[in-house]
Specification:
This protein has an 8-stranded mixed β-barrel. Strand 2 and strand 3 form a beta hairpin. The protein contains 2 helices and 10 strands; from the N terminus they run H-E-E-E-H-E-E-E-E-E-E-E. By secondary structure, it is an alpha/beta fold. It folds into 2 domains: 52 residues; 164 residues, Sortase (Sortase, Chain: A). The longest helix is centred in the N-terminal third of the chain and has 51 residues. The N and C termini lie far apart (106 Å).
Length: 222
C-alpha cells in the first residue's frame, strides 16, 4: 500500500507538474505575442479582402487616344471625368512608369493605376495637377526619377509633356509640399515613402515637374 502511494506521488511530480508549467508558459507567451499576432492577422485579412474585390471591372474608361497637337482646346470639347473614371494615361519612360490615369485617388483608381486628387485640376487648366500612386505598384519606378526626366500625360483632348524639376521627401501631414492655388500649370506626383513598403507610411515622396507642351483649355463648359 505504501509503495502504491509512493508511485502516485511520483506520477504527480513527473507528469502533472510539468504539464502545469507548460500551460503557464503558453499563457505568458500568448499574452506577450497576441498584439503581434493580431497585427499579422489584420494585415493578412486586409490583403485577402482586397483580393475578394475585382477592382479591374469597377470603372469606366473614357480615354480615347488623340493626335491633337494644337495650342488650345475648347472646354465644350473636353469630356470632364467624374470620380473613378479613367480619362488618360501617364508615362515616364526613364522610370518604366506606365499607368492608367484616373480622376480621384480612392481604391478603384489606385488599384488600377494612378489618380488625380479631386481637389486639384486635370491637365490644360494652367493649374496644379496632383497625382497619387502606390509606392509598391504603379509609382514604384519613381525611386529612379531624375531631374530633367520627361513625364507624358495623354488624354482624349490632348497630349502633355512635363519636365521634372525636383524630387523631395516630406511628412504626410506637411501641406507645404504642394500648392493648389498656383496660376501656372505644374505637375506633382506623390507616393508613400520608403519605396517597397507595405501599408501607409509617415512620409511621402514628391516629384515636381513643369509643363513643356500641351493644349490649354479655353472657354466655358456648356
Amino acid at each position: 500500500m505504501k509503495k502504491r502511494n509512493k508511485t502516485n506521488k511520483n506520477t504527480k511530480k513527473f507528469v502533472i507538474v510539468p504539464l502545469l508549467m507548460c500551460a503557464a508558459i503558453l499563457l505568458v507567451s500568448s499574452t506577450i505575442c497576441f498584439p503581434l499576432l493580431s497585427d499579422v492577422f489584420s494585415i493578412g485579412s486586409m490583403f485577402l479582402s482586397d483580393k475578394q474585390v475585382d477592382y479591374s471591372k469597377s470603372f469606366e474608361n473614357i480615354f480615347v487616344p488623340t493626335a491633337n497637337d494644337s495650342d488650345t482646346v475648347n472646354a465644350k470639347d473636353v469630356d470632364f471625368p467624374s470620380v473613378n473614371k479613367q480619362f488618360g494615361e501617364l508615362k515616364i519612360k526613364s522610370c518604366s512608369v506606365n499607368a492608367k490615369l484616373f480622376f480621384g485617388d480612392g481604391k478603384i483608381p489606385l488599384r488600377n493605376g494612378v489618380g488625380v486628387y479631386a481637389g486639384s485640376f486635370i491637365p490644360g487648366y494652367n493649374k496644379t495637377i496632383l497625382v497619387a500612386g502606390h509606392n509598391n505598384t504603379y509609382f514604384n519606378g519613381l525611386k529612379n526619377i531624375k531631374k530633367g526626366d520627361t513625364v507624358k500625360i495623354n488624354t482624349s483632348y490632348g497630349n502633355y509633356k512635363y519636365r521634372v524639376t525636383a524630387a523631395k521627401i516630406y511628412n504626410a501631414e506637411n501641406k507645404k509640399a504642394y500648392d493648389l492655388s498656383k496660376n501656372e500649370e505644374n505637375l506633382i506626383l506623390y507616393t508613400c515613402y520608403p519605396f517597397d513598403t507595405l501599408g501607409i507610411t509617415e512620409k511621402r515622396f514628391f516629384v515636381y515637374a513643369e509643363k513643356v507642351s500641351g493644349p490649354k483649355i479655353v472657354g466655358q463648359y456648356e
